[in-house]
Amino acid sequence: LAEKVQSAIEKIGRKGRIDEETLEKGLREIKLALLEADVNYRVVSNFIKDIKEKALGAKVIKGVNPAQQLVKIVHDELVQTLGGEAEKLNLKGKPSVILLIGLQGSGKTTTAAKLANYLKKQGKRVLLTSVDVYRPAAMLQLKKLGDQIGIPVFLEEKEKDAVKIAKDALLKAKDESYDVLVVDTAGRLHIDEELLEEARKIKEEVVPDETLFVIDSMTGQESVNIAKAFDERVGMTGIVLTKMDSDARGGVALSVKGVTGKPIKFAGVGEKIDDFEPFYPDRVASRILGMGDIVSLVEKAQEVIDEKEALSMQEKLLSGEFTLEDFRQQLRMIQRLGPLQQIIRMIPGLSSQKMLKQLEKAIDDKKLKRIEAIINSMTPEERRNHAIINASRKRRIAKGSGTSVKEVDALIKQFVQAKMAMKQMKKMQRKMAKKGGRF
Ligand code: GDP
Ligand code: MG
């Protein structure tokens, strides 16, 4: 998905301007990519529609790089769709009751313990209970977890009626004035009537403050039907997305949120008790896009890079009048962004460790400082016209900058190569324009 979205966005970016036709084309690819990531069709359609309005209305053309701005628009819209800010639990009852529902293996029992521990850390007295009457092992699993975190677990191992256990647990919680009762329920591998009916009855009995639907982030397309069934038949007030530590991109988050409209409140991010956190829409949005930290890079860049400066630089680059003077200015612009190693890591598509290592080797801050020192030691005339830099000038420059003639040579060679590459690019652009090619 990440690659697709990136290539779609790149294509828009290369054009330099976002007109309606180009935007349409790019968005169509983003749409396909989202569908491929198992996001529900209706959710995708609404999403694309919103993006289109925003991207066209936002006069994206004005900025430094429309592609980056579009990434930001897509990202912001994803965050919006995923629910904006992380939403807190709504606990009013005394005791408050939290009911966990969902399929078997989705992570309910683990989440029950994680949630209980999370609330305990906030100073709440918590009671856990399991009403999974089908699998004795499931009750013991919760008991073990409860022991581990020092939270009491109410069990009736012989009881076969789940509703009865729930009722008794609530009585105990009331009697012993617990703040919160967390109820872990049974699940099936697939949605079935009996399971939904039982969950509904338990819910009727304990009247929970929060009914949290637990879903595995790797569930795929089926997630929409499962979420819908639970929401319609049992009802839910929020969602917990588990196994976010897997390599799933988070398409499930978008679907489930889109189809139920209920807030995603927590994310499970590992098997351990502490691998649990409030759901952060912005993180998941970045993940769905596969953009790493590009959004923060864009924000940072917008702060430090003067638009006009960048534009005039771009014109110079393409006009072929690029000098060592301009080169130095560009180096400074890049350095203002922060440590290069960090910036490199923010560039999307550089997920490949090999590529990352190579780049890091090629560009490092110390090298940049040396390059700048070399250019600083040149006379303005030399900077404007590198051709006059002969052997004796090179020796002088090397001495002045505390570098070597070899380094000065290498820099000039690199500069000439870059200049040639730019000319080449310019030619290609002209050719493309003649042919009427879009990208
Ligand atoms: P239940 O059947 O819904 O009660 O699911 P469990 O709580 O028993 O979890 C099923 C499996 O998923 C167990 O092996 C858990 O350790 C694992 N699990 C649950 N939540 C997470 C999570 O956030 N990350 C990872 N990696 N594993 C999880
Ligand atoms: Mg369980």
What does the model show?
- There is one protein chain.
- The chain has 439 residues and is of the alpha/beta class.
- It folds into three domains: 2-84, Up-down Bundle (Four Helix Bundle (Hemerythrin (Met), subunit A)), CATH 1.20.120.140; 96-279, P-loop containing nucleotide triphosphate hydrolases (Rossmann fold); 305-435, 434 Repressor (Amino-terminal Domain) (Orthogonal Bundle).
- The chain is built from 20 helices and eight strands.
- It has helices at residues 2-15, 20-36, 41-57, 66-82, 108-121, 136-149, 162-175, 193-206, 223-233, 251-260, 281-289, 294-304, 307-319, 324-336, 340-346, 353-362, 365-376, 380-384, 391-401, 405-435; strands spanning 96-101, 126-130, 153-154, 180-184, 210-216, 238-242, 264-268, 276-278.
- It has an eight-stranded mixed beta sheet, with helices on both faces.
- A hairpin with a 7-residue loop joins β7 (264-268) and β8.
- The protein is elongated and about 95 Å long.
- The chain starts with a helix and ends with a helix.
- The structure holds guanosine-5'-diphosphate (GDP) and magnesium ion.
- Guanosine-5'-diphosphate is lined by residues 102, 104-110, 187, 242-243, 245, 268-271, 275.
Tally of individual helices: 20
Secondary-structure element series: HHHHEHEHEHEHEHEHEEHHHHHHHHHH
Q: What top-tier CATH class of the largest domain fits best? A: Alpha Beta
**What is the residue-averaged pLDDT?**
80
Largest sheet: 8 strands, mixed
CATH architecture tag of the largest domain: 3-Layer(aba) Sandwich
| Strand arrangement in the largest pleated sheet | 3-2-4-1-5-6-7-8
Which segments are poorly predicted (pLDDT under 50) over 5 or more consecutive residues? 60-64, 348-352
Radius of gyration: 29 Å
- Give the beta-strand count: 8
Instruction: Using the coordinates shown, work out and report the CATH topology of the largest domain.
Output: Rossmann fold
Our estimate of the beta-strand percent is 5-15%
